[in-house]
# Entry
Amino acid sequence: MKDKVSNLFNSMDDKIKKIMKEGLMFCFVLAIISSLFLLTYDLFYSSITIYYIGFYILKNSILFACTFFAFGIGFNRIKKEIE
# Structure
């Protein structure tokens, strides 16, 4: 399984790989921002709205990361079939 995923990334087109890396970095930044919101809520316990903002940003960042990963693999496969 690990070799299969490694071969998949190594055979990927450079443009698709670049878009995937930038998208995953964007998702990582969103996860850090959401962690800051959740830490603020944990330390100061000020408003439940801060908790929900942090939770929804974290949920969306995980969803975006999975989407970038899946669509990157899909577009790579489509591009290989066209060629």
